[in-house]
Structures are given as C-alpha cells and as structure tokens.
Amino acid sequence: MSAHNPHAGQGPVVVDVGGDVGALVLRTDARLAGAEIEISPLDRPGERSHVAVLSRGAGPHGEVFAAVYPALREGSYVLWQPDGAPTAPVHVRGGAVTDVRWSELAPRQGPPSPEGGPAARAAGVP
Predict the structure, then answer these.
(1) Is the separation of the CB atoms in 117 and 106 below 8 Å?
(2) Are 6 and 61 spatial neighbours (Cβ–Cβ below 8 Å)?
(3) pLDDT digits (tens, 9 = 90+) for 63-122
(4) What angle do CA 79, 93, 66 make, to 5 degrees?
(5) What pLDDT digit, counting tens, does each position of 21-63 carry?
(6) How far is CA 43 from the centre of its chain?
(7) How far apart are alpha carbons 30 and 114 in whole angstroms?
(8) CA torsion 34→35→41→42, rounded to 10°?
(9) Hey, is 12 helix, strand or coil?
(10) This model's pTM is above 0.90
(11) How confident is the model at residue 110, as a pLDDT?
C-alpha cells in the first residue's frame, strides 16, 4: 500500500512526453473534484494506477477540473469510474498530450476488450 501524500496535486504538473511516452489530461466537472480515477492498459485491467481530479486553475470559461496522467506508454487505456465500471478505451500517442473529457467517455458494460469502444473508434483506434 502506498502512503498518502497530502501535498500531491499542489502546483503545476510536469508531463514527460517523447518517443513512445505520452500524457493524458482527463477533464471533468467539479462533481468529481477529489475523486481518484484509476487507469489501466486496455489489455491488462489489473495493472491500475490512479490520479486525483483537482482544480487546475481558471480558464476562459471558469475553473477547470482535471486528472493528469503525466507519463503513459503509447497504447490504449481504460479509465475506471468511481463505481468500478470501465469507460470506453482512450488511445494515448507517444510524444503527445491526449486531452479527453469525462463526459464524452461512454460507459461500457463488462470487462474491457481489445476491439475498443465508441471513443476508440471515433479516434480511429483499431
């Protein structure tokens, strides 16, 4: 079990992108503030890590809430809803920051599958 870091999330986030490593910014609304959103590789749902949704400051349309996954290997990932249900896959490209909105991820029924879901097909992920 990892220890809780009371200072985590305070200050800017540094992303580590390049080569086959990308980052993911998951934008949410204020209702998920403080929630820990788990992520796992599409083909390895048991290998999960998590990031908290935090206020990332004010944007042109008000306060922005997001979870930032700063270094992910290129590939398809599943985000896990607070109730444990998976979302549609999200593809992270190496050397880039992928920006997705929680509201656009259609909840999926059952375990993740390699053929992808609506979000993956819309992004052109095979």
Answers:
(1) yes
(2) no
(3) 889 999 999 999 999 999 888 889 889 999 999 999 999 988 855 444 444 444 434 333
(4) 45
(5) 999 999 998 888 998 999 999 999 999 999 999 988 777 777 8
(6) 16
(7) 31
(8) -140
(9) coil
(10) no
(11) 44
Contacts of residue 3, Cβ cutoff 8 Å, sequence gap at least 6: none
> What DSSP letter does each residue of 19-86 carry, written as one string?
TTEEEEEEEE-GGGTT-EEEEEETT-TT--EEEE-EEEEEETTEEEEEEEEEEEESEEEEEE-TTS-B
The per-residue pLDDT for 2 is 46
User: How far apart are the two ends of the chain, measured CA to CA in Å?
Assistant: 35
Rounded Cα distance between 87 and 96, Å, is: 21
Q: Give the whole-angstrom CA distance, residue 82 versus residue 93.
A: 25
Which token pair is 23? Answer: 């980052």
Q: Are 17 and 92 in contact (CB under 8 A)?
A: no
CA torsion, points 59, 82, 23, 91, in degrees to nearest 10?
-110
Rounded distance between C-alpha atoms, residue 36 and residue 80, angstroms: 9
Phi-psi region of 104 (alpha: psi -120 to 50; beta: other; left: phi over 0): alpha
